[in-house]
Amino acid sequence: MTSKSSFLISMKENNKRRIWVWVVSFLGQLVLYPGILTVYLSRINFWNEDGVYKLPEHYRIALQEAAVDALGFQPMCMLPVAILAILIAVQGFSYLYDRKKVDMYHSVPVSAKRRFAVIYLNGFLMYIIPALFGICIGILMAAAQGSLTIRCLAECGLAFILNLLYFLTVYHTTILAVMLTGNVVITGFATVILLGIGYIAYAITEALQNVFFDNWSYFFVKRAFTGSVIMDYDVKIYWFKNLPLLEDIVKTILPVYGKWFLAAALLLALSLLCYRKRPSEAAGRAMAFRPLNPFIKIIVSVVTGLVVCYIVYDATYYNIVITALSTAGGTLLCCIVMEAIYEADIRGAFKHLVSSGIAMAAAIFIFCIFQFDLFGYDSYVPESKDVESVALDMGPYQNYWEWNEENESINYLSDGEFIRNNMFLTDVEAVCELARKSQELDIQNAADCRSVSVLYRLKSGKEVSRLILVDFGDKSNEELLNRIIGTEEYRSGFYLMAREDVETAFEKTEREWTVTYTNGTIETDLPSSESMRLREMWLKDMEQFDFTMANSERPCGKLSWDIYDSYTSMSVPVYENFDNTLSVLEEYHAVYPVELRAEDILSLEVTNWHYQDQEQYFSADGSYRREAASAYPETQHAVRKEFTDPDEIAEIVEQLYPSGTLLNLYWNDMNELDDGYNVTITFKMGTDYPYKRGYFEYKFLSGQVPDFVVERTAFEAEE
């Protein structure tokens, strides 16, 4: 009883010196829970008074979702909880920075273990009591507003445990940083390093891969690995927040609980060990344990040197010599600074040169790994027998989303996420053969070189992504590309229109779908009731789609589905052999030829950008060379001419094709259109063609620019 009473008295005395931290913690939790909930509910009530919610049920659902957002998995907790954990840890053990206070504390006949327990437990209570108080206030507020649900309570409980483990991990990490250092400034640096060293190493590795390796691809890079509890929390909180079912949240959150609990327990054990072994004379020094100095110096200096390597390599346009010298210099400079900090004397900067030499050698070796590709990153092509399936991104750009069954709403996806989740090509050999040919491709002599991101799913369970180059103009690649593009696996993994989510969205979304078809100039609105039918017909026509067809033919139109007043849209090309799709479109008189009728055009404005002509007028640094082009005005970078003669218009329109976002020519030869010219069209009034009024961008087919257009849009010499 005496021991228990004494322990409680010690906690009470310790709390007297930490009252202001209690106040900060309570205020912070009140802002995070009741405060945020008040803001969310006030917005919903304001919007309801403004007539946004047409039905009472919609208003009630909005209130419930606001309560879940505020009391459940709340991303805004990330920084406040981490800052609070760091504050509590540093303030609690700050006496270790002052030798007088250390002597005073150690003169009291109390064991180190008990002293640590008092400070640690008070810090733990400083978080959990205000957090529970804030959550309880928030729950009462939600109940009073009629927005409290079972889902809200469940997510609130799961998020509370997640935040508690997150707090403990950061709390224990900071305590360990305090035990390893002797003053608050170095503790701050140590905390940042301990919390972020994994993420920093991962980010630097990815950055170096990006600049050094030709075949590195960001498209399929998964950001799940973070190497830092703070970054891990940032990723996971959004993940849990967007999972539709509670059982899915429980299944995925339990491993995170286990990982963070083990990490927190290990960090606490290390902190207690360091506390008991920490020498009293460590107060005020940079590092408490001198034997750790060289190891910490090497790690920090190597990381610093690699950061310098990345910056200099990119800034000097891949100058190997300067980059190598800068890497060594940056590493050495960091070693000098750290030694000066260790010794608290500039004269100690050049001590322990052996560890500095090791750090420099390690940084240069890592630089050589990337510069000379010592482990064969760029040359990697797996054996097809070792690959389970493949996903790849060949383009063109798509707008991806998925249907959320629980909320009956649309969630937007990145293109990499969609293709990773939906494309499973089993003709692995075709992809591997393209990758092997990429190793030998002569880019300078390639007819139509494209970058393709590939994700190999190995049978071992590992996933490897690379960037390969494919020459679309090489006839020997045609069969391989047909084996990839002409499959149901590719269509269902790349085209959103092929997914069942679209059918569900058509049926269940309360917002109106609009369907349009355009040939580049004439745009026809189709009944939304035809959405499903047009999709079915387009999918049926796509069964004949392969590389040979797409590369040899140009689209005759574009079919688009859009949700009114939103960013949700889908656009797909239509070809002249898509008989099923065109038959539906013809019922609504939507099909018009891509070719324009000259008699409908009032005038054409042709812009000659003179890209090739201008190259000779500029130096390598981009400055204008007046002496090389003295006959031409500096501002004359493009020439625009208007054509109104009916005969000239008739000759011009025969060589035009709609460009830009109107029709998609991705699969065709990239040089099929002449990017050196733009043509803007003005139509006559009163034509029987329903031309859409507005701006129409056309381009000439390559090599088909009439001579009189070339002559009249040439640079004019100054008089």
General description of the model:
It is a single chain. By secondary structure, this protein is of the alpha+beta class. It contains 24 helices and 14 strands. The protein has helices at 2-16, 19-49, 56-71, 78-92, 99-107, 112-144, 150-180, 184-212, 229-242, 246-277, 293-315, 320-343, 353-371, 415-422, 428-439, 478-485, 488-494, 500-508, 531-541, 547-552, 579-587, 611-615, 646-653, 707-712, and strands at residues 387-393, 400-404, 409-413, 449-458, 463-471, 513-518, 523-526, 557-563, 569-574, 601-608, 639-643, 656-658, 673-683, 697-701. The strands form four sheets. A five-stranded antiparallel β-sheet has the order 11-10-13-14-12. The N and C termini lie far apart (107 Å).
Task: Count every beta strand, where a strand is a DSSP E run of 2 or more residues.
Answer: 14
**Mean pLDDT level:** 87
How many helical elements? Answer: 24
Query: What are the segments in which pLDDT stays under 50 over at least 5 consecutive residues?
Result: 624-635
Q: Return the structural class.
A: alpha+beta
Inertia-based shape:
globular
Termini gap: 107 Å
Helix content: 40-55%
Percentage of β-strand residues = 5-15%
Largest sheet: 5 strands, antiparallel
Strand order of the largest sheet: 11-10-13-14-12
What is the radius of gyration computed over CA atoms, rounded to a whole number of angstroms? 33 Å
